[in-house]
From TrEMBL, chain A:
Membrane topology: Multi-pass membrane protein
Alphabetical list of Gene3D superfamilies matching this protein: MetI-like (1.10.3720.10)
SUPFAM superfamilies: MetI-like
PANTHER family noted in UniProt: PUTRESCINE TRANSPORT SYSTEM PERMEASE PROTEIN POTI
Species: Agromyces lapidis
UniProt-listed InterPro entries: Bact_Polyamine_Transport, MetI-like, MetI-like_sf
Compartments, record wording: Cell membrane
Protein name from the UniProt record: ABC transporter permease
The keyword 4Fe-4S is assigned to this record: no
UniProtKB/TrEMBL annotation, chain B:
Upper classification of the organism: Bacteria, Bacillati, Actinomycetota, Actinomycetes, Micrococcales
EC class name: translocase
Family statement: Belongs to the ABC transporter superfamily. Spermidine/putrescine importer (TC 3.A.1.11.1) family.
Organism: Agromyces lapidis
UniProt EC number: 7.6.2.11
Domain ABC transporter, residue spans: 13-243
GO terms assigned for molecular function: ATP binding
Alphabetical list of InterPro entries matching this protein: AAA+_ATPase, ABC_SmlMolc_Importer, ABC_transporter-like_ATP-bd, ABC_transporter-like_CS, Mo/tungstate-bd_C_term_dom, P-loop_NTPase, PotA-like, Transp-assoc_OB_typ2
Keywords: ATP-binding, Cell membrane, Membrane, Nucleotide-binding, Translocase, Transport
Protein name: Spermidine/putrescine import ATP-binding protein PotA
Pfam families reported for this sequence: ABC_tran (PF00005), TOBE_2 (PF08402)
Subunit text: The complex is composed of two ATP-binding proteins (PotA), two transmembrane proteins (PotB and PotC) and a solute-binding protein (PotD).
Length: 262, 368
């Protein structure tokens, strides 16, 4: 009984610790005081200032573009890896898996330095392209692992059944593999997106003039002092995340409900 | 002479010199097989005998190391699976979990772009055939094992292919359902008039359903024949031992022996007779095959015919009794109907001596 109560208490404490900062960001984004130390009533002033900050909006756009491309490419390559490895049982499978997961283990700062030297040696100018390539290195393992666990659960007879019933390899993909992997595809895409969108280390090395990402901009504004409009931005991003989670969650929930009813 | 008469229908499947080698090991040795139109043909053998590989070469999932596969007279060895006029019923059923029963059955017609009305009509027909017309809206995971099996069968026959291959389809079902499905499968095969190639390790399934059976062992087809011939006239020691229960008595076949009443000497048992299917030109080691139920057992009496055996074990199985008899140094199995036991040997107990005999036509002698 006492153990239960202690565990219960710790669980509550963890939740408070996790969510108080998030709640604080939202509350202070409406704070009229202009500083995070006291509260002086409600205002929307910081939201107005946020949208008028052209430089900040520019970095938001860069981050969004990089994250969308990274997530899409990582998911596409991840699907191929997952389907290939789910069927391949021969030699070298374990080493291949290790190679795919390696970027998760190697410190990101090492990867960043390495990428930077490759790009300077090959004279590739820093910008959106180098950001996408760098972010791919860290998001591809995540996307692949998510998709692989899902692909490994498919009955290996399914593609053979599709072939037997007249499908070309492409039809087998669109009619059988993709619909069955869709939840994993959505998850892998979102995971890659957030990994790219919030990345700082890689971006520090790989962003060029005019391609500063949002996290870099926020980080650099620490030197000049955080403005309350950063709180407003934070609140908006939290809202966006919630909407995505709810959309994905609701559609999943609806599917489960439909399947259990009939 | 013109051999291509118009009345001849090409066999559904012809296999010519087909073999498969995996890493230096011949999984299927070169073999020939002809499977007729509308035939229920079983490929029977223990696991690892090459039956699955043979089936996968017919479907095109596996490329043969040598030989040809003909479907309806046309060479399809180089034709990809999706363009072969055959379908497969997978052991796991391989139903698409994201599609409803109706969509699963309609799958092939939709992939092959059959007009929608036509496709829907044929799908409904196929579902009626397997008596699942009322479950079209269900997903596969809401069905029982037997129902999934029927959906898989409907999906395999909906396009009316020339051949349907069934890979141990009853393996996952319980005993009661298996028996039911055996009759159902046979009924449906007759109803749709499609050649079924049934791959199984279960001799009972093969015997009850098949028109003909090919018994395979270690990559070699041992015998191809109808169920009765396979059971009563096994041509090899393996076939006799694999199908049903059989006494395998080692012997020596004398030089020049041939015919229906060949006398051979079985060590310890004495001289016995059986049918020898071939003529041997020199003395060869052989095996005498005789089924337990073909052995007649009588009480031992002075001057009685047959070989003497001592009852070692005596097992009651309801409709019959199983006896293990010690004959010389050998154990011989015999069975006795409950009726015959009550009538002829009412007081039989272990340790009794009996006389064993059989008609020469009920024993086969094969060369080892």
């Amino acid at each position: 009984m006492t153990v239960d109560r202690v565990v219960n208490g710790i669980a509550r404490g963890v939740f408070v610790f996790l969510y108080i900062p998030i709640a604080a960001v939202i509350v202070y984004s409406f704070n009229a005081a202009g500083t995070n130390t006291r509260f002086e009533g409600l205002t929307l002033q910081w939201y107005v200032e946020l949208f008028q900050d052209a430089a900040l909006m520019q970095t938001l756009q860069t981050s969004a573009i990089v994250a969308v491309i990274t997530a899409t490419v990582a998911t596409a390559i991840g699907i191929m890896f997952a389907l290939g490895l789910a069927r391949y049982r021969g030699r070298g499978r374990a080493s291949l898996l290790a190679l795919i997961a390696l970027p998760l283990i190697v410190p990101e700062i090492v990867l960043g330095v390495a990428m930077l030297s490759v790009f300077s040696a090959t004279k590739i100018p820093l910008g959106i392209l180098t950001l996408v390539l760098g972010h791919l290195i860290v998001s591809l393992p995540l996307a692949t692992l998510v998709l692989m666990s899902s692909a490994a659960m498919l009955d290996p007879s399914l593609p053979e059944a599709a072939t037997d019933l007249g499908c070309t390899p492409w039809q087998t993909f669109t009619r059988v593999y993709f619909p069955l992997l869709r939840p994993a595809v959505v998850a892998a895409w979102l995971l890659s997106f957030t990994t790219s969108f919030s990345n700082i280390v890689m971006s520090t090395f790989l962003s060029g003039v005019g391609s500063t990402t949002l996290p870099l901009k926020i980080y650099s504004s620490l030197k000049t002092g955080l403005t309350p409009s950063i709180n407003a931005l934070g609140a908006l991003l939290i809202l966006l995340t919630l909407v995505i989670v709810l959309l994905v969650g609701v559609s999943q929930m609806r599917r489960i409900l439909v399947e259990s009813r009939s | 002479m013109n051999t291509q008469t118009t009345s001849t229908i090409a066999p559904a499947v012809e296999i010519q010199g087909l073999s498969k080698e995996f890493a230096g090991h011949l999984a299927v040795q070169p073999l020939d097989l002809t499977i007729g139109d509308n035939e229920f043909f079983s490929i029977l053998g223990p696991s690892g005998c090459g039956k699955t590989t043979l089936m996968r070469m017919i479907t095109g999932f596996e490329a043969p190391s040598s030989g040809r596969v003909l479907l309806g007279g046309a060479d399809v060895t180089a034709v990809p699976t999706r363009n072969r006029d055959l379908n497969m019923l997978f052991q796991s059923y391989a139903l698409f979990p994201h599609l409803t029963v109706f969509e699963n059955v309609a799958f092939e017609l939709r992939v092959r772009r059959v007009a929608k009305d036509e496709a829907n009509r044929r799908t409904r027909e196929a579902l009626e055939l397997v008596r699942l017309g009322h479950l079209g809206d269900r997903k596969p995971d809401q069905l029982s094992g037997g129902q999934r099996q029927r959906v898989a069968l409907a999906r395999a026959v909906v396009s009316r292919p020339k051949v349907v291959l069934l890979d141990e389809p009853l393996g996952a079902l319980d005993q009661q359902l298996r028996k039911e499905m055996q009759y159902e499968l046979k009924r449906m095969q007759r109803e749709v008039g499609i050649t079924f190639i049934y791959v199984t390790h279960d001799q009972e399934e093969a015997l009850t359903m098949s028109d003909r059976i090919a018994v395979m062992s270690e990559g070699v087809v041992q015998q191809v024949a109808g169920p009765e011939d396979i059971y009563n006239r096994p041509e090899t020691r393996f076939v006799a031992g694999f199908i049903g229960s059989c006494n395998l008595l080692d012997t020596t076949v004398p030089e020049g022996a041939a015919g229906d009443e060949v006398e051979v000497v079985v060590d310890g048992a004495g001289t016995v007779r059986g049918v020898l299917g071939e003529t041997v030109t020199s003395e060869r080691p052989g095996t005498l095959l005789v089924r337990p139920e073909r052995i007649e057992v009588r009480p031992d009496a002075p001057g009685a015919a047959g070989i003497a055996g001592v009852v070692e074990t005596l097992t009651f199985l309801g409709e019959e009794w199983h006896l293990h008899l010690l004959v010389g140094g050998l154990t011989v199995k015999a069975s006795l109907s409950s009726l015959a036991k009550e009538r002829d040997l009412p007081g039989l107990s272990m340790g009794d001596t009996l006389r064993l005999s059989w008609r020469p036509q009920d024993a086969r002698i094969v060369i080892r």
